[in-house]
């Protein structure tokens, strides 16, 4: 069974940092591109970032460029999102998702972890 | 950035009737050399993550009932539920994956009439 489990969310003050993790199982992690998508509760989906299979290519949504860093550890089947200089507008559920090489539609998603940026 | 706009924002349909959602991209998302439209549809039920329904604009994902179908090309796309079931109540999102940032539509909420 394919599983993606996010962790690392929580309450953080503006300007602070968090590191999200996405532990995966049930598929060959190193064969898939991985993505982060966020959603303010009750609102729409916003694509945040993606990484290719060997970390040689990453991409970010403009509002997080220079503040967020996506990475992966293929030996641990885990995806990460380092989030620095957090702002109130970063408050959202953060989902990790996997995508096949050659087509970045999001095959399966984790349950999400909530990041709350507030003083 | 490619802007993706969905319509309607909400829709109420009777059980057994057809539901249709539209998705419009601000740019052509057909990669003509391979004849593929880089558009996906997702279903999100309350308290759950999104679930992939359709990719390449018209290919159903594994396990998705055949009452769900996708169509369209270029900039205009449609998701159709041929005969609404109670479990289809959800918000439906389309997404372009032609070019980053991989933008989503704002979502269309489906309710039972």
Short description:
The complex is a heterodimer of chains A (119) and B (113). With 119 residues, chain A is mostly beta strands.
Supply the key terms.
heterodimer; A: 119 residues; mainly beta; seven-stranded mixed beta sheet; four-stranded antiparallel beta sheet; B: 113 residues; six-stranded mixed beta sheet; 0% helix; 50% strand; globular
Structural features, described:
The complex is a heterodimer of chains A (119) and B (113). Chain A is mostly beta strands and 119 residues long. The model of chain A has no long low-confidence stretch (mean pLDDT 97). Helix content of chain B is 0%, strand content 50%. The termini of chain B are far apart. Chain B is built from no helices and 12 strands. The mean pLDDT of chain B is 97. By secondary structure, chain B is mostly beta strands. Chain B is globular. The interface between A and B is medium-sized, with 23 and 24 residues.
What separation lies between the terminal Cα atoms of chain B? 36 Å
Which pair of protein chains has the largest interface, and what are the residue counts? A-B, 23 and 24 residues
Strand tally of chain B: 12
What's the pLDDT, averaged over the residues of chain A?
Answer: 97
Q: Spell the H/E element sequence of chain B.
A: EEEEEEEEEEEE
Strand content of chain A: over 45%
State Rg of chain B.
13 Å
Q: Rough shape of chain B? A: globular
Poorly predicted sequence stretches spanning 5 or more consecutive residues of chain A: none
Strand order of the largest sheet of chain B: 2-12-11-6-7-8
Q: Which consecutive residue ranges of chain B, at least 5 long each, have pLDDT under 50?
A: none
How would a textbook summarize the main sheet of chain B?
6 strands, mixed
- Helix coverage percent of residues of chain B? under 10%
Order of helices and strands of chain A: EEEEEEEEEEE
User: Which range does the strand content of chain B fall in?
Assistant: over 45%
